[in-house]
């Protein structure tokens, strides 16, 4: 009886079987590396989002200029409606301050490629002060103009101060930094007077 030709010794089968490749890397190590890579990618993406998100420096500068121009108009038109002599005095100081600030900002803006007479129309529209004007007109009709004016302008000037601080921390322009520092210094006592008047008359 002849042996089955399909039967081979086990050693022979082991010899001709392809050699299995050993994994190059432990699966746990691979998972750690992939995890670290994912975390790094997320961090880089977050940093890029922060740097690219929000308003650009140019938009912030134009917003600041448009807002101060609007507040100057509001402060001047408010003069005839203010009853309190204390608030009227504070408002006169504010009006003069804004007139000077709107004049002085022209040069640093020009140094940064922006003309005050040619601001973005979308920004000008957004900063037209329509909401504040409506609020003040309602306050006048309800005989609560002074305290409403003090509250509204105090809030608006706080937003101006906050915006100036944001611009100051990012700009490298010396003329702009000098303007922002000087303007903020001169604005502080006016903000305090308006806040104090609002606190007493609220």
Kindly state the percentage of residues in helix.
Answer: over 70%
For the record, the CATH architecture stands as Up-down Bundle
Largest sheet: none
Number of helices: 9
Structural class: mainly alpha
Number of domains: 1
Instruction: Count the E strands.
Output: 0
Q: End-to-end span in angstroms? A: 117 Å
Which of globular, elongated, flat, extended, rod-shaped describes the shape?
elongated
Radius of gyration based on Cα positions? 34 Å
The mean pLDDT is: 85
User: What is the succession of H and E elements?
Assistant: HHHHHHHHH
Unreliable residue stretches: 49-54
CATH topology: Ferritin
Strand content: under 5%
For the record, what CATH class applies? Mainly Alpha
Could you explain the architecture of this structure?
This protein has about 200 residues and is mostly helical. The protein has one domain: Ferritin (Up-down Bundle). It is built from nine helices and no strands. Helix 3 packs antiparallel against helix 4 (about 85-105). Mean pLDDT is about 85; it is low at about 50-55.
Write out key terms for the chains shown.
202 residues, mainly alpha, Ferritin, 9 helices, 76% helix, elongated
Question: Topology of this structure?
Answer:
Elements: H1 10-16, H2 27-52, H3 57-78, H4 85-104, H5 106-111, H6 121-126, H7 130-141, H8 145-170, H9 174-201
Helix pairs in contact: 3-4, 3-8, 4-9, 7-8, 8-9
């Amino acid at each position: 009886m002849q042996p089955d030709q399909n039967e081979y010794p086990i050693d022979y089968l082991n010899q001709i079987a392809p050699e299995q490749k050993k994994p190059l890397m432990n699966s746990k190590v691979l998972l750690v590396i992939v995890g670290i890579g994912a975390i790094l990618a997320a961090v880089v993406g977050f940093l890029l989002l922060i740097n690219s998100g929000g308003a650009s420096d140019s938009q912030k500068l134009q917003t600041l200029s448009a807002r101060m121009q609007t507040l100057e108009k509001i402060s001047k038109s408010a003069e005839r409606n203010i009853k309190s002599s204390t608030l009227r005095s504070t408002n006169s100081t504010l009006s003069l301050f804004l007139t000077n600030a709107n004049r002085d900002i022209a040069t640093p803006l020009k140094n940064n490629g922006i003309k005050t007479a040619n601001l973005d129309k979308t920004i000008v529209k957004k900063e037209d002060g329509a909401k504040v004007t409506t609020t003040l007109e309602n306050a006048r009709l309800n005989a609560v103009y002074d305290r409403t004016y003090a509250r509204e302008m105090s809030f608006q000037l706080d937003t101006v101060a906050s915006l100036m601080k944001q611009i100051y921390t990012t700009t490298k322009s010396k003329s702009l930094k000098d303007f922002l520092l000087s303007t903020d210094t001169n604005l502080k006592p006016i903000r305090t007077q308006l806040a104090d008047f609002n606190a007493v008359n609220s």
